[in-house]
């Protein structure tokens, strides 16, 4: 346990949002995958045809997501069901085990969509990557890792994914504490955030707000390529 952690009452919870294939951590992805809701028979058939919109809020079990996050925040070891993207169904007998941790990072396209869930996070990040990059990454991911047909992937992106991003995901950018342009390629910004998270853990929970403000001031300095939304109230979601 790092020095200063004795006074902490709960894990430091970090939320990471952003469009599909924007560069969000694949480690965090395992946490959110399990909260896709169980599809009905008709929904499953539509999913196999690429017609079910997994980027729409209706595709997520937000109650399960909140339950899992509250369990994590209580310091308990938490079981999260795994999701099979190839067959579009939740695996009832397989789980991701999240042990009690000092820091938990949760990633997903709509982690900030529900206000009662968004407010659980100590730090909210939005990964901002241009649409062309996200599309190319999604095509490679869905065809190579998830065994999907290229034509189906492109059709799903243009008819479902892109409109859903613009309507549901992009507006949550305004609730983020900070926005990271260029995603994982922005190593300077990421290293700066890591450094300040380490400060938070070292100095304890009582300095959380002070350290958050210090981070916001630092990332607003020229050259970091990262935007603190709290320092710029005029940021528009679109």
TrEMBL record:
EC number(s) reported in the record: 2.7.1.48
UniProt similarity note: Belongs to the uridine kinase family.
Protein name as it appears in the record: uridine/cytidine kinase
Gene Ontology biological process terms in this record: CTP salvage; UMP salvage
Annotated InterPro entries: P-loop_NTPase, PRK/URK, Uridine_kinase-like
Catalytic activity: cytidine + ATP = CMP + ADP + H(+); uridine + ATP = UMP + ADP + H(+)
UniProt keyword RNA-binding present: no
Domain Phosphoribulokinase/uridine kinase stretches: 35-188
Lineage: Eukaryota, Metazoa, Ecdysozoa, Arthropoda, Crustacea
Gene Ontology MF term list: ATP binding; uridine kinase activity
């Amino acid at each position: 346990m790092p020095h200063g952690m004795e006074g902490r009452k709960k894990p430091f919870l970090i939320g990471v949002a952003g469009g599909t294939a924007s560069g969000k951590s694949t480690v965090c992805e395992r946490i959110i995958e399990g909260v896709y809701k169980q599809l009905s028979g008709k929904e499953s058939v539509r999913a196999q045809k690429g017609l079910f919109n997994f980027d729409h809020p209706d595709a997520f079990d937000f109650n399960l997501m909140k339950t899992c996050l509250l369990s994590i925040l209580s310091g308990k070891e938490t079981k999260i069901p795994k999701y099979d993207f190839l067959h579009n169904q939740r695996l009832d007998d397989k789980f991701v085990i999240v042990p009690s941790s000092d820091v938990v990072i949760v990633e997903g396209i709509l982690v900030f969509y529900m206000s009662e869930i968004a407010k659980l996070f100590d730090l909210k990040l939005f990964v901002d990557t241009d649409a062309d990059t996200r599309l190319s990454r999604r095509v490679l991911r869905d065809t190579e890792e998830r065994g999907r047909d290229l034509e189906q992937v492109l059709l799903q992106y243009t008819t479902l994914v892109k409109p859903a991003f613009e309507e549901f995901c992009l507006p949550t950018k305004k609730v983020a504490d900070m926005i990271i342009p260029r995603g994982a390629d922005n190593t300077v910004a990421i290293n700066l955030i890591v450094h300040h998270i380490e400060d938070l853990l070292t100095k304890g929970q009582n300095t959380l707000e002070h350290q958050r403000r210090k981070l916001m001031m630092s990332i607003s300095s020229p050259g970091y390529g990262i935007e603190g939304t709290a320092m710029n109230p005029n940021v528009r979601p679109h």
